[in-house]
Amino acid sequence: MTVKTAISIEESLYRQAEKLAEEMAVSRSQVFAIALQTFLRQRQNQTLLQRLNEAYAEPDTASEKKLRRAWRRKHRGAVTGEW
To answer: What does pTM read for this prediction?
Structure first.
């Protein structure tokens, strides 16, 4: 289902969208829809990155440090001699 909407943008941006739509052989509406989808995906990625950074900002517990050391040893053993 599609919804019709009206937006106001600068004339130069409108001309660029018109040109891009012509180059891509799609409608102007499709150009705006693609742009919005891209923007929303970037915002979601930024939000996820922020949440991950917040989660990992807390100092590691002693058990997490121990686990990380063990994984490093295991990884080193797995890749030793591969290059």
So the answer is: 0.64
